[in-house]
Batch of 2 targets.
Target 1
Amino acid sequence: MNLLRNVSRISRYLLDSNPIHSCHCYLSTDRPESISAALKKFYLKVHPDLFTQYPKEKDVNEKSLQLVSAYLSGLQKKEYMAAITVTFFTKRPATELPPAPVLLSPHRVTLNSRDLLTSVNSILDALSLPVVDVPKQAKATIKQREILFKVVEIEKFYDFSKIPKISIETWLTSNVDAARAIAKRHQALMNEISAKVNNIKERFKLSSIEYKDEWSVPQFNACLSTLLMYVDKWHERLLSLQGKRLVFGDKSCLLQDGSLELGANDPPVYWDHVICCELIDSDQYMGKIATYEKNIAEYFHGIQIRQDPDSQNLCRAHTYLYHLLQLSHHFDLNRDHEAHKHKLWTNFHLYINPYSSDPSVTNSGYFQINAYDATIDILDFMVNNRIKANETRKSYETQAEKEKNILKKVKEQFRLTDLSINQRIMKSDIIECCQRLLNQRQLFSHILSQCRLKIDKNYNLGQNGTLTIPWDWSFGQEETI
């Protein structure tokens, strides 16, 4: 149901708070159900729960829906929204009788309009769905009147009880042999990768070399091989990364902590530009970032500015620097505020996230803000939520220690080769999942021994042999397939 709430949020963002769940929007249609009907068809083609057997595509659709939700919400609030490009997967109509394989089609959607209806129609058009048209008689007067439309209640149109369910015992038993075979087949490649990683780390004194765990092993190896082809050319530049990370990700840029990210799908010429241009300015960027962070910390009398521990994505250095500069300037103009004059913040943490929406307290008890938030809103929020932030941080630290200990216990007792988790899942849920595994170790120990295990949201068998289970796995009595 969490996914359901995320998807339904797009519709809710288009509504005001009145009790009849309707909205006043300047929409180009004279039929209240037009927008709702159109969005309903869109949801029923891309809803993540329709892709439970395709974890990668399901995750893509889930993330894309969240981005689209935020974009449409911003337009509804008359905010400036930067252009975004997302991908949705849909199932192609079957051309053969079962058990023919299901074919999936990707659809790229670019939203760059400040008009709500235009953006909705862009989504519909990209998925070859009927767009919401403007009746001729309404076009002349569309700006003089308001149109009501109703919220789409997805629950009424889709029977989620029909989604197939499978027990953890059935899934593990069916996939463990394949996982061991895949891991064995890739062992030589893993050894080759390990040698390349150690070579690069030692040569440039890097703290780590990282890549997305959903990638295939050959893809990571290809990135390392490409880097090694040009490493002599970039030797002097890469020496400046000593003590920092090298990340293979989605973009090529200098990151906010001085680490380097290289886009896995970018050609070497893109890497060359970042390494030979942006990386050479790393010290200058880091110096300015430190200066503005210090200024903000002094405004709050000693607050600690840190990356949220549950956030793995670092933004570009120049983006982060821009937000620091703007925040520092705005706080300096508000030195009469209670947050500066009468409050001490030495035991609090501040997370500056350029991609956040409104001021908030994260699950780890950090205050989360960005430069586009109204300064007074930020300061008032922080003053009014000191107790909540403090209690949340203490609870998080306790949960983090419990999580660390129980993960270690699970890895040892099941004799796992590796154990990883999805950092976005609540620590209390990870702890619950691990405890349930330990309670059933007599059943699972022989199955999981010497395997790679990951706790995530769905079942999956990774291309490196990792067995992924959902944190809320169930036993056989709920099984439907």
Target 2
Amino acid sequence: MDAGFFAPLFTLVAFFAFLGICAWAFDRNRDADFAAAAELPFNDPEAEAERRRALLLGR
């Protein structure tokens, strides 16, 4: 067996892996997970703690 046999086999494996990743990424059941992940850069735990502290103290 030489490289001429393994090159097309590797191409097929990579292609099906790509299709699997695309199917996973565009699955409608994952929309909520991706929406939550998109909000992570905007979440500031320190600001949230200050907001809660101000609400508890009535300020």
